[in-house]
Amino acid sequence: MADEKTGAPVSGTILVVGGGISGITTALEAAEVGYEVFIVEKNPYLGGRVAQLNKYFPKLCPPTCGLEINFQRIKNNKNIKWFTLTEVEKISGGAGNYDVTLKTNPRYVNNNCTCCGKCAEVCDVEIPNEFNFGMDRRKAAYLPHEMAFPQRYVLDQSIIGKPTAQKCKDSCAYNAIDLDDKARTFDIKAASIVWATGWNPYDAKKMDNLSFGKVQNVITNMMMERLAAVNGPTKGKIVRPSDGKQVNNIAFVQCAGSRDDNHLPFCSYICCLASLKQTTYIREANPKSKATIFYIDLRTPGRYEKFYKKVKADTNVSFVKGKVAKIEEDTETKDVIVTVEDTLSGKKIHERFDMVVLATGMEPSTATSKVPGNAKYDENNFVISDEILSTGCVKKPSDVMSSGQTATGTALKAIQTLVRR
Ligand SMILES: Cc1cc2nc3c(=O)[nH]c(=O)nc-3n(C[C@H](O)[C@H](O)[C@H](O)COP(=O)(O)OP(=O)(O)OC[C@H]3O[C@@H](n4cnc5c(N)ncnc54)[C@H](O)[C@@H]3O)c2cc1C
Ligand code: SF4
Ligand code: SF4
User: Fold this and answer.
1) C-alpha 389 – ligand 3 centre gap (Å)
2) Domains, in order of start, for the chain
3) Cα atoms in the Cβ-side hemisphere of radius 13 Å centred on 117
4) Which atom of ligand 1 has the smallest separation from the CA of 52?
């Protein structure tokens, strides 16, 4: 790549931190026009939160649709290098000339892995499965999920030094397990840095009145995504956590933590749409089922209005305008009782459901883990720097489509930093 005016070569690496859909998009857009890009991802796989969704709008296709095409593009592009299980420890210098220290945690499994699954078969230690929000357990030798990229197993740190780890190693016919693998730090130079570390679900336990963690059949919207997914903890059956009973009557509680000065003061943008989408999961799985959405306002911007109208036309889906005051459990039946004042009729409602889904919002990852360098934040911890650039949900709450659009724009910004330096 050469500077158009001077003909001098334009070089330098673009470092993208976060391998979700936003980071992947920025990386690909820059790499496909000739720039060198490093992607750094803390998980053992790329794809971010989208990989955890059952289906995603607007087309309601499974996440494999979009992600696999992108993984293929990454594999085929020699300009992209990606590091999983890796985080940034330190950034110094400035735009055009950053010094960055990265730390890669051990996977204990090398490139020889064929995903044969033998190590998981012999592994006798199980731990809560974080990919499914702890709704099931997984082996300590594991593939994070079926479509994980890279397709390579991981050994959980907790078994290292224990006989199970040796058993896993002995079972591997491909010499793929390295129990001496260690964390290592290394330094790179980057001309431009894009922070794309996304979001975390807001901690539902913080809303005492909504009883998450106290009432078993109250779950979050991300748990609902996993529950509905065929590769999820119930193989796609939408059943109650308390007794595995089929869910016939479900409620969604909107703005669970969002638009609330005591929690997240902003609108999380996506959770009205997520609940509307999730009513279709249950209505398609069980034609007799009923769903009620308790909302303050329903926000379905732009083309999503059409989707809202489609769900609204379903007579088994009801909408009640009112802020949920209380959620309790019938200790005998494990049903969930929701108390809310219907602001349109003025009536106080006390209604019983099989299960309740809290439409919890998106908190930027930088609320809990700041950029280890010079970055600016807004009052809600979203990254708004002009030097270290940001994109996707760590910049503002967004859906996949707008994440992709801003990520493309951010690729241009990152390239401009290289060209101008
Ligand atoms: C219940 C629910 C349903 C949704 N359904 C849809 C839908 O149907 N359609 C739609 O368009 N959108 C949907 N969304 C929104 C969608 O999930 C986001 O738009 C998308 O995840 C944004 O991608 P991202 O790359 O910005 O962030 P993320 O997906 O969060 O990716 C960020 C990545 O950065 C990594 N990371 C974090 N911190 C670090 C660090 N310090 N160092 C290195 N890596 C790090 C993470 O591990 C992750 O891989 C839904 C959201 C919710 C809550
Ligand atoms: S680490 Fe070895 S045993 Fe485990 S899945 Fe990979 S190749 Fe198979
Ligand atoms: S998208 Fe809907 S549920 Fe989410 S915060 Fe905004 S109004 Fe509330």
Assistant:
1) 26
2) 13-104+183-199+363-420 (3.50.50.60), 118-171 (no CATH), 203-360 (3.50.50.60)
3) 5
4) 17
